[in-house]
Every structure is written in structure tokens, then in C-alpha cells.
Amino acid sequence: QESEKRYRDLFENSPIAMLEEDFSYVKHYLDGLKKKGVKDFSHYLNKHPEVVADCLRHVLILDVNRSALRVFRVTDKSEILQNLSIIFPKGNLKSFIDELVNISQGIINFHWETINQTLDGEKIDVDMHWSVAPGYEESLQRVIISSENITDRVKAQADLHASETRYRGLFEDSPISLWEEDFSEVKAYVDGLKKAGIKNFKKYVSEHPDIVFEYAKRVRVLDVNQATVQLYKAASKKDLLTKRDKIFCEESLIGVVDEILHIAEGKYDFEGETVNQTIDGQKIEINLHWTVAPGYEDSLSRVIISIMDITEKKKAEVELRQSEEKYRELFERMESAVAVYQAVEDGNDFEFLDFNSRAEEIEGLKRKQVLGKRVTEVFPGTAEFGILEIFKRVWQTGQAEFYPAAIYKDEKRRETWRENWIYRLPDGKIVAIYTDVTQRQRTEEAIRISEARYRSLVENQIAVISRTDFDGKLTFVNDEFCRVFGRKKEELLGNRIVSSVLPEDQHLVGQAIQKAMKPPYHSQLENRNVTAKGIRWFRWENSTILDSQGNISELQYVGWDITDQKNAQMALQRRDEIMEAVSFTATRLLVAADWRKQAPIILEKLGRAAHVDRVYLLEYPNIHHGISLSEITDNLIEWVAPGVEHRLQDVSLPGLSDFSQAMNRWKTTLTRGEVIVAAPGKIPKNEQSFLDVLGIKGMV
């Protein structure tokens, strides 16, 4: 009696739902089938569902505990008995057939997972455990069935699987090369060296270069994406992984050493530039970003490496440098300031001997104010500027030196950039040819900052990413997408994309999407989008996601903001055009026997480079006298842009006499070496009336 009471207490108060059932009829029925020769009960029961239904009807529920009432949301035991068809749906017959098969085989303890239902209709995942009570093995009159609610666990597993599937999709379809690697053996190897007393790893690696090979063979590649296969020109993932040693060349060793040093320092995120090569031996310059996946900081057993091919960017940088060098000498010497010095105090200071007019303009000083004075007296910031040391070195060695653009300032002068060439004359005097390049430096600094911003965005993979289904409805957007376009995820997901593409670019986008929907299911384009910050240029990588049957399931779009790069490219292109036009003009005028024959070509070159509508060249017959109307028309050379009308040779043109007066005023101004800038709204009325006839709003 005490044992029975203890059992009942355990049964009633168990936190797991439990049912006490009588399977004696089922046991007797199945034994009868055995005697009739049935051996394959699984086959027999599936062929005779009426037998299964009969057995199910004759299973008697003797008792249920409180947890069962709670799990199935009933008030008492009788309510369970009255609603068995709801709690244990007919759809569970397969599970019951499995029970019958186990009983036919004499198994008295087994479990399975199935789906039950609460009284209010909610389906729940359960783990069922079927066990015969001791002493009832022959009759099965007393069977204990426990039912554990595992709905949360099943849902968590499903969510985990869905998350892993989405991650894998992003990993595989990323346009950037991605590697998933295991560095746990590397970590153990480095930790072992630390325990052995190695502290200065940089020195240790330089003295033991074989550590690089030990490092490489301990890295285990877990996976790579398709972009990686394409980047390294492999036939497949397997082809790449079996030939992985071929992607490393001598230049790669520096990058490997950097990885070792970062790991030794305990860094979990770093990046750098190095050189790899494709499977067929073609060298590529890459930007490598190495980061440890969250939760794996101690073991480094999961590291994500992203690789971007920067070969073309590096090539463009070299070409840009070569382009700058091509015009540098001409640019640096045109209208340059020139100063001549002699050494004093054994080369510790220098005295002005000459000072040209361009130097006067740049410095705001007259020649007589500087001749005979020391450099440090006229320009007290010279020592800090750094050029005094170069003066002394050139004076001592006779080797000419170029002092690149640097900032000069002192208490009297505003901050300016100067660029210097210094060389020694045969008589020992020092000549400095220098240029005020303040505006150029500011422009180049702006370009460098713009390029640095763009490079940072790309290298750190700050991209806007979205996915749509075949109907154009958004299925995924990342945080950067929401930030760039000023929208919330809940506003976007499940809705169609509202086009942010400028109308004139929309046909390009349509063509790119159509291309991405055909093999090889990828396209690229650059276009302008309207963002929360206005119109921006984006480079887009578009790809198609296929399902297991090869049908299009989603379209993925990955974009990078390249506005700063575009602006920088246009600025450099404009500067090169102007420099080429200046060089062309100087060359033609220097070598031409008759400048008038060269004038039309020169004016066209200058006009196109400056993107203006009209360029004029007027020869004054007598610079000291006024110029008449006829002299203007006889001595004027005019170039106009396509679509602009030649007008100044037309003597009947209204207001031409006003223009004659204006030219005489301009002549006086130009003779003083000044530049005329006629901005819109600031031109004298008598001159503006004539310029209006020509449609000219402003001129220089």
C-alpha cells in the first residue's frame, strides 16, 4: 500500500504529462494475428487501416495526471476522455501503427516524437515515451505513457535552421570573396610559442621563416563562396581547395606574417593589402579583412575572411601617378617664382641676390624690400618650413633637389603651400624656383579625402543589400539599406520597391535586372539613386537566387555608394584636360613661325578644355593707343562652341561701339597685369547690353 501510494504521488505530481493506459485488448489481438501467420506487421497494418482503428478504439485510458490536464488545457480527467479525437488527431495513425509494430515485437519501452493538440485546438510538438509497468509485461494491462511538450525546442530548431539557411544564402551569393576557416590549431600553435617564452613575435618570425609554413598547414578551410571560385579562376570549390597552395606567391608571405603577428597580439579583427595569384598563375592585388565570428574568440575555430580584388584600383593609381608626372615639370615651371641666393655663415643662412616679378606677386613684396636681406629675416618661418636645410645641402653637394609641396606660415603671412626646385649655379649661388600651389593642394586633399572615404566604404563592406521575390516584393533589407534610403524595415518588407532610380537611368536598371535573370545569373551597373541625402551614384552587383529545382526564387541587389569616387574621377579628368590644353598651347606658340596660323587650333583646344561657349584672341595694333571698331573686327580671332553663332565680325551688330569702348578699358586693366572677371550681375551696363546681344552672362 505504501508503494502504491508513493507511485500515485509521483504520478500525480510529475511535471511531465503522464497517462496510464490498458493495452491488453491490443496485445491479445496482435497475438492472434501472429498465430494466423502475420509476420510483417508494418506492411499488414498499413494495408488494413480498419485493424488499426479497431485497436485504437480498444485502448483504455485508466488515468491521467495533473500535468496532462495542464498541457492539454482541460479541467478534469473526464474532459480528456470525452475529447480523445481532438487531443490525439486521426492524423497520428502512423505513430500508432509504429506503437503496434513495437508491441508485436515484444518491445516494452520506446519513444517517438509526434504532434498532439490541446482542447482549444493549438497543435503542440511532444516527445512520447511508452513503457510497460513492471509485472504487466505479458498482459499490457498497465502502460505508462509520458508526453513532454517540446514545442519551444522544435520551433527553436526550425528558427536555427532558417537562420543558417539565410546566412548560407548571403554567404554563397555575396559578390565579395568570402572564406570560412578554422584557426584553432594556429591559435594553439601560437599559444604554445608564448608558453615557451616567445614575446617578440616579429623578431621570432624574421629569425624563423619556417613558421610561415607551420602556420599555413594548420589553417583549415571550412567553406568558400562562389565569388571566391570565380576570383581565383577555379573550376569548382573542390578544385580551389585542392590547389589552394597555388594562390600564394612570394609577395603573399608579407600578408601571412602580418596575420601571425595580429593573432599573437590577440586581435580579432584586422585588414591589410597583399598579393595572391589565381590558379592559372595570374597575380592579383587584394584587400583582406580577417574577423573572428562572435562566440569563437577563445578558439578561433570560426574565422570569416573577406577578400576584394583591388588590382584594377592599384593599376588606376599607378596610371594616375604617371599622368601627374607627365605634366609636373611643365606645370611646376610655368609662371614660377624665382629667387637667387648666396650662402652666408657657412651655409647656415642665405642672402637674397635677386627676386623676380612672379615672386613679388606671390609674396606681396617688392624686389628692393628683400635684396641684400637674409632668408630668415624676410621669411622667419623658413627653418620650420624645412627648406633651409635643403638650401645648405644643395650648396654643399651641388645636387639639385625637389622640395615637395609643404605649408609655409609665419606671424605676418597666412598659411600657404609652396613647391620648390633648388639647384646650384656654377659660381656657387643657389637658385630656388617655386610655385604657390595652395589651391592645387586643397583640391588634391579634397580628392584624397573623397577617395579615402570611398575606399573605406568598399573595404569594410558597407553595402546596401536587398532581396525581392519574383513579384518584386522585398524579402530582405539590411540596416545600411534602411539608413541610406531613410526607411524602416517594417515599411519595406513584403512590399514592392518604389523606384529611387533617376528616370534617365531606369532603362539601364531594367536591362541589368533582365541580364541577372539569365545564365550566369549576374549583372553589374552604375546608376544614380535618390537617397535620404539626395542623388548619389551607386555601383550595383545583381544576382539571381535559384531554388533546388533551378527556378528563380529571389533577386539580390548589393550596392556601394561611389559618389565620391565619381566626383574625384571627374575632377581629375577635368584637371588633366586643362593641363593638356595648357601644354598644347605652350608647345604650339613656342615652335610656331606664325602664331596666327596656330591661333584657331589653340582657341578650340582651350575652349573645349574649359567647357566655355566662346574664346577670343585680339591683337592690339598699338598697345599705347585706343582701338577702333574696324580694328576690332580686323584683328579679332574668334572660336565658338558647336551650336553657337559667330557674331563679332558683324559690324552691324547692335552695341558694337559699346564693345569697342569696353575693349579699351579692358586693355588698360590687362596692361597692368590684372585679370578681368566679369561675373553675372557685376558687369557695367553699357558692356552688359552688348554682351546680352551675344547671350553672354559672364566671362573671364
Offer a concise description of the structure:
The chain is of the alpha+beta class and 700 residues long.
Relevant terms:
700 residues, five-stranded antiparallel sheet, 30 helices, 22 strands
Characterization of this structure:
The protein is an alpha+beta fold and about 700 residues long. The chain is built from 30 helices and 22 strands. The longest helix has 29 residues, at about 565-590. The N and C termini lie far apart (about 115 Å).
What's the end-to-end separation, in Å?
116 Å
Helical fraction: 40-55%
Strand residue percentage: 15-25%
**SS summary, helix count:** 30
What coarse outline follows from CA principal-axis ratios? elongated
Layout of helices and strands:
Layout: H1 2-13, E1 17-22, H2 24-35, H3 41-47, H4 49-57, E2 60-64, H5 66-72, H6 77-82, H7 84-87, H8 93-104, E3 109-117, E4 123-132, E5 143-149, H9 151-173, E6 177-182, H10 184-195, H11 201-207, H12 211-218, E7 220-224, H13 226-231, H14 237-242, H15 252-264, E8 269-277, E9 283-292, E10 303-309, H16 311-333, E11 337-344, E12 349-355, H17 357-363, H18 367-370, H19 375-378, H20 382-385, H21 387-397, E13 401-408, E14 416-424, E15 430-436, H22 438-459, E16 464-469, E17 474-477, H23 479-485, H24 489-492, H25 506-516, E18 522-531, E19 534-546, E20 552-561, H26 563-591, H27 595-610, E21 614-618, H28 629-635, E22 636-640, H29 656-671, H30 685-694
Helix pairs in contact: 3-8, 16-26, 22-26, 26-27, 29-30
